[in-house]
Design brief:
This protein has about 290 residues and is α/β, with parallel strands linked by helices. It has one domain: Alpha/Beta hydrolase fold, catalytic domain (Rossmann fold). It is about 35% helix and about 15% strand. It has an eight-stranded mixed beta sheet, sandwiched between helices. Strand 3, helix 1 and strand 4 form a beta-alpha-beta unit. It is globular and about 45 Å long. Pfam families: Abhydrolase_1 (PF00561). InterPro entries: AB_hydrolase (IPR050471), AB_hydrolase_1 (IPR000073), AB_hydrolase_fold (IPR029058). This is Alpha/beta hydrolase. Keywords: Hydrolase.
Amino acid sequence: MSDNDTSNEPITSYALAPARTVTAGGVTFAYRELGPKGGIPVVFFVHLAATLDNWDPRIVDPIARHRHVITFDNRGVGASTGHVPDSIEAMADDAYTFIRALSFDTIDIFAFSLGGMVAQDLVVKHPELVRKLVLTGTGPRGGKDIDKVAGATYYDILRATLTRSDPKEFLFFNRNATGKPAARAFVQRLQERTVDRDADISVKAFQTQLKAIKKYGRSAPADLSKLTQPTLIANGDNDRMVPSVLSEDLHRRIKGSELVIYPDSGHGGIFQFHQKFAPIAVEFLAR
C-alpha cells in the first residue's frame, strides 16, 4: 500500500488506515497505523475472535487525531501468520515481539476484553515498556468467573445463529430497547472500511483463545499492586462476558486507577457510549 504521501496530513480515519506487515520471531504480524507519527504511540489490543476490522472507528478516530495509533493482529489471528498460543502469557510475549519489531521503547495501551488480559500480562513482565493503560471490558488473572466466558460465548453464538444476527449483538449489548439499536449501529460501523479488509479468525484459533482465557481465569492472580502506570478502567454495568464486578476488582488492585461504569449497557458499554467515552480516553491519554 502507498503511504498516501501526496499530502502531509496524516490519515486519521481508521477506515482508510493502510494495512502493513512486519516480521519478527518467525511471525509476520499484520497491523494498521494512522494518526500523526512521532511521540508515544497508542497500541490497541483487540478482543476475543477479533481481527483488525473489529475496532470501532468512533473510538479509534478521535484518539488518532492527535496520536500515532497502531492496531495489530496477534499471532495466528486474521492476516498474521503462525498459530494462536494457548496461553495469555504467550500472547503477551508475541505482542512484545511485535512492538519491539517496530522499534518502540515506550507505548500507551488501549485494550478491550481479551486484549486487556494480554495487556496486563505484558505490563507485569515489561513495566518499562508501558506508560499508560486503558483497560476496557476486562478482568484480572484469576478473576471470579472468567473461566465461564467460553460457556456464555457459545450460548450467545447459538442465539445469534438462530436469529441470523452478529454474535456481538448478543455478547456486547443488552437485549433491550437501548441495547438493540446500539448493537446494530456498532455492527454497521465495523463495515465502514470497504477495502483491504482483514481475514476472519479461524474456528480453531477462536477455540484456542477461549482455552487460553479459561486457563487465565483458573490461574493465580498477578500482583497488580506493583503497577505504577496511570490506568483508566471502563465497562458497562451489565457485562455478561467478563462480569462488571471484575472492572471494580481491577480498580481496587491497581493503585490510583480511574473507573468508569456506564449504565444500562453490557460488555460493549464503551461502544454504546462512544460519544461520552472517546473524549474521556483522549483526555486521559493526553494528560
